[in-house]
Design a protein that fits this description.
The two termini are 20 Å apart. This protein is α+β, with helices and mostly antiparallel strands. It has helices at 22-35, 63-78, 122-125, and strands spanning 2-10, 44-46, 49-58, 83-90, 101-107, 110-115.
Length: 131
Amino acid sequence: MLELHGWITFRETYEAMEDCQFDRIMEAIFRKCESLKYHRLKPGAMDGEWYLEVTLFANHHNPEVEELFEFLTYAAAKAPGSYGMFYMHDDEDRTGMENEFQVFVIARGKIRREKDPFLSPFIPAVEDAEA
């Protein structure tokens, strides 16, 4: 089972300047959302800030998961001032992280993977080991 929860706040740049191109950037992000095959992502706005919250459950790592990460990579590059975090647990992970949450941090136009200090190792932090 794969479980993913996260959010991103969209910002044009991490530099202190007026948002000159931000409307066009958000239009491109909305077009990208509309082009997705597996997801119906809908960025929202609150108090003048654009954001997106995502939750995903899947039986296995599949094209739906890949599409989401492709979108996040696109959004981070298109709006490099954006920031956010996505937590993923994949109990079938093939890189040795099947007992850990993986934390994907979005900042400065990039996504990097970090270790989770809160819910990992999944067993015993969240679940008991099978007897």
